[in-house]
Write a structure and sequence with these properties.
- The chain is mainly alpha-helical.
- Among the domains are: 23-60, no CATH class; 122-151, no CATH class.
- Helix content is 31%, strand content 7%.
- It is built from four helices and two strands.
- It has a two-stranded antiparallel ribbon.
- The longest helix has 20 residues, at 23-42.
- It is elongated.
Length: 152
């Protein structure tokens, strides 16, 4: 025996039911139609007005689709309102055109490494208090001893 769903007992509802138009609903839609057109006249939106009650009813029940895309074809600006930006060629374009092409920064020289050239010889760095770094030189060893005593 096969297991089939009885359509009368099924909870799956794939059908789109048609709603019946009652006289009360029709009168309600007529009032809404009049109010809609009146509001469109007051706000100067004559393009949104409906010509007949049938068109308005079709709109209310979703039978006609409204074009919601904004038409940009009507937005055409005159040519004279646009500012003309001059074309400024880059340095690379100018050098290629003149035939003097070279890499940027290629004419510079290598920087010499830094060297200590002072008279005093630096032995190291001591911490006097918290993170106070103090240089220790070879000619003043007593200063290093004093700093070591201050830390204790």
């Amino acid at each position: 025996m096969t297991m089939h769903l009885d359509q009368r007992l099924s909870m799956i509802n794939n059908k789109k039911r048609k709603t019946k138009m009652t006289k009360a609903r029709h009168n309600e839609l007529v009032e809404q139609f009049k109010a809609h057109n009146k509001r469109c006249k007051q706000t100067n939106q004559r393009s949104n007005m409906y010509a007949s009650i049938e068109d308005y009813i079709d709109y209310c029940y979703g039978r006609i689709k409204i074009d919601t895309s904004n038409s940009r074809e009507s937005l055409v600006f005159p040519k004279d309102t646009h500012r003309q930006t001059p074309n400024y060629p880059s340095m690379m374009e100018e050098s290629i055109k003149n035939g003097t092409f070279h890499k940027i920064g290629a004419e510079g020289t290598k920087k010499e490494p830094l060297r200590y050239t002072g008279e005093r010889k630096l032995l190291g760095i001591a911490t006097m208090h918290k993170s106070n770094a103090v240089p220790i030189f070879a000619d003043d060893k007593q200063h290093a001893i004093d700093i070591a005593r201050m830390r204790r």
